[in-house]
From TrEMBL:
Record-given protein name: Transcriptional regulator
Organism phylogeny: Bacteria, Pseudomonadati, Pseudomonadota, Alphaproteobacteria, Hyphomicrobiales
Originating species: Rhizobium loti
CDD domains noted in UniProt: PBP2_CrgA_like
Family annotation (PANTHER family): HTH-TYPE TRANSCRIPTIONAL REGULATOR (PTHR30537), HTH-TYPE TRANSCRIPTIONAL REGULATOR SINR-RELATED (PTHR30537:SF21)
PROSITE patterns linked: HTH_LYSR (PS50931)
Highest taxon, organism lineage: Bacteria
An example Gene Ontology molecular-function term: sequence-specific DNA binding
Length: 306
């Protein structure tokens, strides 16, 4: 097992680029990760990495070894999944990621309940509004809101979510309430955007009488955190485009007002995505079933004001 552990550390270092990140991911210290890489290099008799101050880059030997090592680990994972399916006792670790706001509201609170139901399954949850590279970072399941274009991934739709444009009464009193979409641009409204590396949607697509239309809106600042956007809107700083379930409590207590309700944003797909082979793993299927039912119920409760 020690040799396999060394291979697993090597693969994560290649994928994450440094010992610290790989150590955090595998719950070992950077020193332990470094020792395992050294043991593997000693066993193979070659150097696997070129070391810089910030990153470890695989050597030619390391690149070649990575391809085979990845296949070995995937084969072991598939074999373990097959045994779990036969025994009816799924076990192991699932790496999950979700956007910050959605993850906090819907996913994170369900992880303890899932573990109570399946105590032999560990879940490692990572919350980020950045576009996480599922294949590179070894993610098993990613919950996402928005456009999903990666053909190397499979998708399980959970539900289509209504989106709304909202702003605080304070902002609308100061700047005027737009009555048609063109006023967002013509009257230079402060439209606050979610932006991050790899983001694709830098426009707002609204449902107009002639069909979906893209509007290149602008604002004085943006962020990579969806909850920060909501905070700015609540303080009267501008207009935001959000899934309705995220802002429904503020709409109900009139801290935010829906605008342009006759030309709302196009709905957004809430879905779980995962690598093709992962659905063969019973623990992944169990998590998908559990979270899909739970998230649908929670979203409907939020929209109903429960």
């Amino acid at each position: 097992m020690a040799y396999l552990d060394n291979i697993a550390v090597f693969v994560r270092v290649v994928e994450l680029g440094n010992l610290s990140a790989a150590g955090r991911d595998m719950r070992i210290s950077p020193a332990v990760a470094s020792n395992r890489i050294k043991e593997l290099e000693k066993h193979l008799g070659v150097r696997l990495f070129n070391r810089t101050t910030r990153q470890l880059m695989p050597t030619e030997h390391g690149t070649v070894f990575y391809g085979g090592a990845k296949q070995v680990l995937e084969a072991i994972t598939e074999a373990e999944a097959a045994v779990s399916a036969l025994s009816g006792q799924p076990r192991g670790t699932i790496r999950v990621t979700a956007p910050l706001g959605l993850g906090r509201r819907l996913v994170a609170s369900g992880i303890p309940d899932f573990h109570d139901k399946y105590p032999d399954i560990e879940v490692r949850l990572r919350l980020s509004d950045h576009n996480v590279d599922i294949m590179k970072e070894g993610i098993d399941v990613a919950f996402r809101l928005g456009i999903i274009e990666d053909s190397s991934l499979r998708m399980r739709g959970i539900m289509e979510c209504e989106r709304v444009l909202v702003a605080a009464p304070k902002y609308l009193e100061a700047r005027g309430e737009p009555m048609e979409p063109q006023e967002l641009i013509g009257k230079k409204h402060d439209c606050l955007m979610l932006r991050y590396s790899g983001a694709r949607e830098y426009v707002w697509t609204l449902q107009t009488p002639t069909g979906p239309q893209k509007f290149e809106v602008h604002g004085p600042y943006d962020t990579d955190d969806g909850d920060v956007l909501t905070g700015w809107a609540l303080s009267g700083r501008g207009i935001i485009n959000k899934p309705r379930f995220e802002v429904e409590p503020f709409i109900r207590d009139r801290r935010l007002k829906v605008i342009l309700s006759s030309t709302p944003p196009t709905p957004v797909q809430f879905a779980a995505v995962y690598p093709h082979k992962k659905l063969q793993d019973p623990k992944v299927r169990l998590l998908l079933d559990f979270m899909a039912e739970r998230c649908q119920r929670l979203i409907n409760d939020l929209l109903a004001g429960k």
